[in-house]
């Protein structure tokens, strides 16, 4: 379950009815593009794709020997699987992410891995991302050096169905390659094989995850009063004059979720609109309770330039009692309480304190940190982003601003010879 709480934004129900025509129009425009080539709305259909799920499961079953899974990918090709695997790794397979090009940790990783038990997954929609190709080259050499001809079983590719250098390489070498559907962009790809393949190795409940995402689809299309993504899109739209959007999650298991959201929000919505105006708000990742001891001071008493979203679990899967300690009476208010009670109290107190501090804040309650609820939340946030693209007049599915950095990197490398 995912539940929106706007108790500290009392005018919101009226604002929702006032903006009904605007929201309905944004939804109509978005859905009208569905199925249009190049509209990049394929992520809406991923939760229904049972064929890919079967293919991913078959591959997982055929490779029971895997103990270490190295995902080489960056941005949308790494952030989603990283967020979900950290929360729902039930298998004990160890995951390593090469989403950087720092030599020292890469060398250390290569020294600790057993190539005979390692599966390398190179993930890139374009198939041409520099960091990913650099990592692939290094791991390919390592696999070949240790395994000879057997290296092919240890490398699996996830990329465009037809195009790009990685697809061509996989074909040339006869490698197993999963497809990221053409109409699915990187930051919207977590429910494609980009996420499903690693999560199958992590033993995550994929049925639950996709069922949750289907629920988000249902709410996205529901009448306005029941349309959670239209509601949160409106919250962000009404506060677009506030430059900062804090996304704060009260779950250690979901510690990587804010980074996934940051890419989704910032890269989709921070750009020039159709009139050439710069638009966008800056998503700031935060984690509870850790950031209560780091960022919350600023959130509470710093500039009133923020809209904050708190993601708060309502129930734990398991709980842990805080036992009494003799001689530590200062902590007696904790004794007999549980970790989750403390977590929940802290989240609620922060929610209230932020509102009383004058900040604009709302909560998204997750029934539990389960694949179902988190699948729902992630697909919900994709809908929210897509609706905001319509409301702000930007193409939420391109990233022209990233291209210049890529071109300059290439130019610098060429100069160095
Ligand atoms: O999946 P890839 O094509 O390798 O792309 C990885 C990342 O590259 C660029 O930085 C894009 O701006 C991101 O949106 C993308 O997620």
UniProtKB/TrEMBL annotation:
Enzyme class of the recorded protein, top EC level: isomerase
Organism superkingdom: Bacteria
Annotated active site: 267, 293, 406
GO MF, one annotated term: monosaccharide binding
Keywords: Cytoplasm, Gluconeogenesis, Glycolysis, Isomerase
Role noted for this protein: Catalyzes the reversible isomerization of glucose-6-phosphate to fructose-6-phosphate.
Family note: Belongs to the GPI family.
Name of the molecule in the record: Glucose-6-phosphate isomerase
